[in-house]
Specification:
heterodimer, A: 2 domains, 11 helices, B: 2 domains, 10 helices, 83% helix, DUF5058 (chain B), membrane (chain B), transmembrane (chain B)
Chain lengths: 227, 233
């Protein structure tokens, strides 16, 4: 337990320090434009842009934080924070690694394995992108063919179609509520598509919790000897 | 000087490489920390090997999609900025949206004829600053939030699994439902990948082909993309 505590402490310490350093480093790109070439946006343009972004992005990022933090370990979360591409790469990699090793994501072992999976995934992605940058010219002509381009544009729906089946097989009952809520929210178009995820999660978790609690209570009433 | 010459200049590449080194270093350090912890928890080497292999294989196909994003973004923002934003800290949808807002706020259009050096600078500033809340939330609140969730659900593992699955399926629905409702290639992709995954799952369960677990997701994605490419020809 004690060792777990010290592992957790060092995860958060390294996570926080690396996040701050990394964020400051990303500022070097626009700063370089400014110091080396004197390139700055106009004050009006910058203020207009930042206000639009604040309105759109802040709720999205809060939604992402609330949605993804429970499904990845803390160390994995900090790796994702720096390397991006959460839902399309890092989380599937973690899910598949946990499946292959038959570990539970909530266990300590699962947390460690998920961290290794996300870190491996981050490194592999960067290596592939480096190869992509080096070979950008030959790649461009191949991937810019309309048929190839159209095919790869559908990688995200393909990924989630497959992941959905994997989740469904593992836990069919739990998938029912979010599936219905998901279709209802998307079809009704009551919210902007940017906010689909947090809205679907909030409603589904609420309904699932209520159903679970009611089911539990019924069970205790019907089988009092079990308690 | 054309803004693209600036965007593709050596100093911009150097900064991008520096950011990349930081990112890789952090991933390696976390990996080693987890490795050490795995030893303490007596997780077998074979299990670790399996997990690493599974994660690496699953990463390959969607990473190729990032290169395609890079191909479409780099003529507008230059290679270093596109690389730093797509491969690190961001994602295609986010970066495109924010870069476009940056251009619009400067009275022009992303990649349009009037897209000036100043508009480019605005796009870069906004893409960089736009993710600030994500970093602030993680640094200040991740630990509190995670221990809060643990307390709320930890007494009951069935409930814990239910909530985690609900969250996961909700995220999946964000991508599946619009594809199913909208139809077309997106629907084909969902259906083909889902059918392939279902067949592979049957093989894994009935024929006990457990080695397939690491490849199933990648095979499903590749088949769907391949089928859509063939449909175009």
């Amino acid at each position: 337990m004690n060792k777990n505590k010290s592992y957790e402490d060092s995860v958060y310490r390294l996570g926080r320090v690396s996040a701050i350093i990394f964020f400051l480093a990303t500022l070097m790109l626009p700063a370089m434009l400014w110091f080396k070439w004197g390139l700055l946006p106009t004050k009006e343009g910058f203020i207009a842009g930042i206000s639009v972004i604040a309105v759109i992005i802040i709720p999205i990022l809060i939604g992402e934080f609330l949605s993804y933090a429970p499904i990845v370990g803390a160390a994995g979360y900090f790796v994702m924070l720096l390397s991006g591409n959460w839902m399309n790469i890092k989380i599937p990699a973690s899910i598949v690694a946990l499946e292959a090793t038959e570990l539970d994501s909530n266990s300590e072992e699962g947390d460690v394995i998920s961290t290794m999976a996300v870190a491996t995934s981050a490194i592999v992605t960067e290596v592939i992108i480096i190869a992509g940058v080096l070979l950008l010219t030959p790649f461009s002509s191949f991937f810019e063919q309309p048929a190839i381009k159209t095919g790869f544009e559908q990688i995200v729906p393909a990924l989630f179609g497959a992941l959905y089946i994997a989740t469904l097989v593992k836990n069919p009952k739990a998938a029912v509520v979010p599936t219905i809520v998901g279709f209802a929210i998307v079809m009704s178009q009551v919210v902007n598509s940017l906010f689909f995820i947090p809205v679907i999660i909030a409603i589904s978790v609420l309904i699932a919790t209520v159903i679970y609690k009611i089911g539990n209570r019924k069970q205790t009433i019907e089988e009092p000897s079990n308690e | 000087m054309n803004y693209l010459e600036i965007a593709n200049s050596r100093p911009m590449y150097l900064v991008t490489l520096f950011i990349l080194v930081l990112l890789m270093a952090q991933a390696v350090i976390f990996f080693r920390m987890a490795m050490k912890r795995a030893k303490e928890l007596k997780i077998e080497k074979q299990v670790i090997h399996k997990a690493v292999k599974a994660a690496a294989i699953t990463t390959i196909v969607p990473s190729i999609a990032i290169i395609i994003g890079l191909i479409s973004l780099s003529p507008i923002l230059g290679i270093p900025v596109s690389w730093a934003r797509l491969g690190m800290a961001g994602s295609m949808m986010y970066e495109l949206t924010v870069a476009a807002i940056g251009a619009q706020a400067m009275g022009t259009e992303l990649g349009g004829a009037m897209y000036s050096p100043q508009a480019f600078a605005n796009s870069v500033w906004l893409m960089t600053l736009g993710v600030t809340p994500g970093f602030v939330l993680a640094v200040l609140f991740l630990r509190k939030y995670k221990s809060g969730i643990k307390k709320a659900v930890s007494k009951d593992t069935t409930f814990q699994t239910l909530i985690l699955t609900t969250i996961l399926v909700s995220v999946q629905m964000n991508f599946i439902a619009p594809a199913v409702i909208g139809g077309g290639n997106a629907l084909n992709a969902v259906v083909i990948a889902a059918v392939v995954m279902a067949v592979l799952t049957v093989c894994m369960v009935k024929l006990k082909w457990s080695w397939l677990k690491e490849y199933a997701l990648s095979i499903s994605m590749i088949t769907a993309v391949g089928a859509i490419v063939l449909m175009q020809i």
